[in-house]
Please model this.
Amino acid sequence: MRDTRTVTAETSKLVLAVLISGGGTNLQAMVDRIEAGALEAQIALVVSSSPEAYGLVRARDHGIRTAVVDYRRYGKRQLSQIPERLLPDSFPEVMKRQRLYRALPPAEVQDRIARLVLAEREMISLLDPMGIELVCLAGFMRLLSPYFVSHFQGDGRYRIMNIHPALLPAFPGEHGYQDTFSYGCKVGGITVHFVDEGEDSGPVIAQAAYPIWPEDTPETIHQRGLQLEYALYSQCIQWFARGQLQVTTGAGGRSLVQILDPGYHEFLQELTRLAFTRSA
Ligand code: GRF
Model:
């Protein structure tokens, strides 16, 4: 059994890094809750994979330090340019767990890994001096390679969290709302999970569901889902900050996350009640 954060009487606010690529409305929701005193955390740094991300403006407006790691600057590289120690032998195999890489020829996979690792090395050099306790992905549209993941979680403690716009393991990938709608689902949902080396495959922390009514469109369910995202993501970070997430090993060796907050049922019931209210 592993606690994700050990909390003592002296434990200070959780130090976060938030990685974004776009509009940053989830980032905004975190900032709002922190400023309202509802989330005991501080955002030490926001890193964007794109210089145009509007989330950067949101961060700066609130006095939060920002940085850009522009992945496009890393062109095609040869694997030989990467220091050997950054690339364990198992890399190409692990990367093939990502749908995007599965169909590619080995040389192309190696090339893409090389580009990812170079960008991640830059990102790590920004994050390491800041004493980051939790890395939150909030609309970060780049894969994380095993190099980045093991840098933060190599000791077996999960420190990278993501918000996914579907009820995993259904609809992994980038288009959770559209995929849920196109499939004809009558209920959709969102998932907050820890990140592992696979594609949206890390341990589920919490999920919330919303109804899909006959008159809905992809856009209306997107808006409904986002309201759940904002509330659930911040709550999961708060559980992490308070040491209320515990990881156990389940059948088949899979990591399972237990939420220790006695208010969990009430929180989820209220969230779900709002989502299922017809006007929501
Ligand atoms: C959200 O729907 C999130 O679930 C997904 O990317 C979107 C980010 O939106 N991972 P925003 O940038 O936070 O507005």
